[in-house]
Amino acid sequence: MTQFLGGLQAELRSIPRTRAERQGVHQRITAAFTAFGRGCLGLDDAQMALLLQGGLSSIGTAMARQARLFDTNVSLTDVLQASRNAWTACGLQMLFGRPMGLTSSIFAYSMLYPYSDNYMDDPGVDAAEKRGFSQRFARRLAGAEVEAANPRETAIWRLVGLIEDEYQRSEHSAVYSSLGLIQNAQERSLLLMRNGSSADVDVARLSFAKGGTSVLADAYLAAGRPTPAQARFAFHWGVLLQLADDLQDVEEDRQAGLRTVFTQAAEHGTLDECTSRTLSFAHWVMGLLDELPGVNHGALSGLIRRSSLSLIVRSVGEAAGLYSPEFLAAMESQSPFRFAFLNESRRQFEARSGLLASAI
Predict the structure, then answer these.
(1) Is 156 within 8 Å of 117 (Cβ atoms)?
(2) Pairwise CA distance, residues 92 & 341, whole Å
(3) Are 232 and 221 in contact, with CB atoms under 8 Å apart?
(4) Could you tell me if residue 281 is inside a domain?
């Protein structure tokens, strides 16, 4: 890992200008990551190919290019956030036996995250303004003609239009019902803000609804009409991803006053039990992969299983102060690297994040 990070940092010392220079950097970074993935993470050839050879990497490239065409001012952070959802939706395409590709509806739904989800999650935005936007957004998703109140809403309305171009409302009403579910869950998640909300909020129910409906919408955009088994996996995978995100952001959420199952648990002691339950749930959700009918998706399933565990394990290491020493040691045994090494490597690399953004 030290060799991989050192090689990556060496590439950041100068920004490539010509096509030949960019291709050379791409080849060297790809070779370094291949050695790292195989030697340190134990990824097999099929998984490496899925990551690097026209699979998930091509989805990220297409996402970035289309995002720049849609909005020349879109930030790298927004593109990466949208890409995370695009990878999820396109992964569902493959799990459902469909060709993997960034459709216009998946692009549009993924871009809704930086435009709408971040706005609703921003504690600095007045709750009344959020409710007004949410009501207008719900009407637009339902097919009504709604005048945009600002440039941000204009962009959101355009994104909804891209979904409408691919899925006619008369033939795919369930697609828009799924989008309505995530929008409603996002609106209800305002209750997770400590400021101005009652203390008797069912935090788990609201968090699970937000995460589950998010990926359920991905399933409808990926398949149009997912089977019950496909919808069931998608919803519960979304819940798991929400839990993993909340664990990863537990310290930040505590400072921002956002209630999650983890910030709630931290108020009463360690996160040992809450994290153990999350791991048990993760194993159960991964079992749902086996119920998806007749699809050969071994490489992707393996990556999903690995990433589900590794994200939780790594997040435990980042929030070490919220765990007992015994639990921390048990979780570190599941990591390919010691937590102290990971945390120090992250701090060193974050200092060069500006160079990385320029290179990307």
Answers:
(1) no
(2) 34
(3) no
(4) yes
Burial (0-12, 13-18, 19+ Cβ within 10 Å), 235: buried
Distance CA 126, CA 228 (A): 39
Q: Which residues are within 8 A (CB) of 258 and not within 5 positions of it... i.e. 6 or more apart?
A: 121, 123, 192, 193, 194
Q: How far apart are CA 62 and CA 49, in angstroms?
A: 17
Q: Is residue 32 one of the residues assigned to a domain?
A: no
Burial label, 322 (beta-carbon count in 10 A; 0-12, 13-18, 19+): buried
Q: How far is 317 from 298, CA to CA, in rounded Å?
A: 29
Task: In whole angstroms, give the CA distance from residue 158 to residue 7.
Answer: 41
The separation between CA 169 and the C-alpha centre of its own chain, rounded to angstroms, equals 27
Asked whether residue 356 is assigned to any structural domain, the reply reads no
Instruction: Check which CATH number belongs to the domain holding 219 and give it.
Output: 1.10.600
Q: pLDDT (tens digit, 0 to 9) for every residue of the chain, 360 residues total?
A: 888 888 887 877 777 778 888 888 888 888 888 999 998 888 999 899 888 887 788 898 899 999 999 999 888 889 988 999 999 999 999 999 888 999 999 999 999 988 887 777 777 778 788 888 888 999 999 999 999 988 989 999 999 999 999 999 999 999 999 999 988 888 888 777 765 455 678 999 999 999 999 999 999 999 999 999 999 999 999 999 999 999 999 999 998 888 999 999 999 999 999 999 999 999 999 999 888 876 667 788 889 998 889 999 999 999 999 999 999 999 999 999 999 999 998 888 777 666 666 666
Alpha-carbon gap, residue 277 to 271, rounded angstroms: 10
110 with 82: CB under 8 angstroms? yes
Residue 301 lies in a domain: yes
317: containing domain: 42-335
pTM, two decimal places: 0.89
Tally of domains within the chain:
1
